[in-house]
Design a protein that fits this description.
Number of helices: 6
Strand content: under 5%
Order of helices and strands: HHHHHH
Largest sheet: none
């Protein structure tokens, strides 16, 4: 039973986190669509808020792992990168939508790789396949956003669709963890 508890505890914490991330992302994407990508303070706030929320979520996950597990370098990299990107997006959104899109793309790559590594490491907790897919997709989508931004595209609202896909992966992971946790409790 002692071997099951840390996995169940972490699984429960991850399930809650994934439901929260799903809800936040849906609201955030809707607000970005409503903003229509128009440069201004509202867009700047939205662009800063998303990576800060990501950093806070990963930090919360590190804490949820408790003393039984050391935070992995990939998780700390994700936190630091997300905070730096929030600052950079604040600046980039005052320059142009294309600059912000380029920064977002680089961040998607930089956040996708640690997410992929962390999901692979946490696979025994259950519900991690969608997180692995999400991390992998972030690598490719990030490259596409960066390329579009470097070519002068100002379609920053495209990142809302990308974020919504990530939200779906968080929802699937949360539901999958719910099933895994029910099986563990019943065993």
């Amino acid at each position: 039973m002692s071997d099951l508890r840390p996995s169940t505890t972490l699984g429960s914490a991850l399930r809650r986190l994934y439901f929260v991330r799903f809800g936040f992302t849906v609201v955030w994407a809707a607000l970005l669509f409503l903003a229509g990508g128009a440069l201004g303070p509202f867009l700047t706030i939205l662009l800063i808020l998303y990576p800060l929320f990501d950093a806070g979520s990963v930090f919360w996950q590190i804490r949820a792992e408790g003393e039984n597990r050391r935070a992995k370098v990939s998780e700390w990299i994700n936190v630091v990168v997300s905070v730096l990107v929030a600052i950079t997006l604040g600046w980039a959104s005052t320059v142009s939508a294309a600059t912000a899109l380029t920064v977002w793309g680089v961040w998607a790559i930089g956040a996708g790789l640690p997410q992929l590594i962390t999901a692979i490491r946490n696979r025994r907790s259950g519900g991690q396949v969608p997180q692995m897919l999400s991390g992998g997709i972030s690598l490719f989508a990030g490259a596409a956003f960066a390329a579009q931004g470097l070519q002068g595209s100002g379609m920053i609202t495209g990142v809302a669709g990308y974020a919504l896909l990530g939200a779906v992966f968080f929802l699937i992971s949360a539901i999958r963890l719910s099933v895994v946790l029910k099986k563990q409790v019943a065993a």
